[in-house]
Amino acid sequence: MECCSQNSQEPCCQVEAVVTVDERGQMLLPKEIRDRAGMQPGDKLALVSWGQDEGIACLALIRVDKLSSMVKKMLGPIFKEMK
Predict the structure, then answer these.
(1) How far apart are CA 39 and CA 70, in angstroms?
(2) Rg (CA), the chain
(3) Count of CB atoms within 10 A of residue 70's CB?
(4) Per CATH, which fold does 1-83 belong to?
(5) Using one digit for the tens of pLDDT, what is the confidence trace for 20-67?
(6) Residue 76 and residue 36: Cα distance in Å, rounded?
(7) pTM for the full predicted model
(8) Structural domain boundaries of the chain?
């Protein structure tokens, strides 16, 4: 079964939009994407890169509040075992 099928409960990775980098290096995230992500002015996003062949193959934006909870969930049990 495809990860992005409508009946799938699995996380899905797909192209949401195509954006353009302007002359100042800025990009505009479409309003529909910001709304679906629950993004508000002032929200903090972590930019995560995945390198390949001496360059960057993928960039991902992760809400800092979600990233923090993901790190706690992954590392919390490890730190408890170290005590």
Answers:
(1) 18
(2) 17
(3) 12
(4) Pemi-like Protein 1; Chain: D (2.10.260)
(5) 999 999 999 999 999 999 999 999 999 999 888 889 988 889 899 888
(6) 29
(7) 0.64
(8) 1-83
